[in-house]
Amino acid sequence: MIVRSETPEDIAAIRIVQEVAFGQPAEAQLVDDLCAAGDAVFSLVAVDHGTVVGHVLFSRMTAPFPALALAPVAVLPEYRRTGFASRLIRQGIARSEADGWRGIFVLGDPVFYRRFGFDAGKASGFISPYAGPHLMVMPLGGNELPADRGVIEHAPAFAKLG
Asked: Shortest CA distance to 69 belongs to which of 37, 33, 34, 114?
């Protein structure tokens, strides 16, 4: 398996991965909408024997410091529990840090995302329509965020998700 940056040739495969992984088109549409609006910062794919089997997208957001949103991340069902999602996320975190971002927000399962360093407690001071136990943040470039409170806003495409 390799993890690499998305290429234009991957777009159709990414849509399939997102739809199959989530069992609905909403997350695939989110990816399309984020890209169309220019809010996608970077996208990685996991490839096994020449086939795209996983995908993660990092998008811009408004925060008191340079921050990205991690979402969605998807892996085909037959590749779950094989480390593909973890590799996508870890490589995305490393790239975000190398590119100078100061934090990454994610909405998801705290048990899963905690292993990467995401923390719901550190996100609790931020005002967001998604605030709650599933909103987490991970500081980059050190152990602390540049700010521990303020308003955060995901790209407008997220509001379309029900």
From this structure: 34
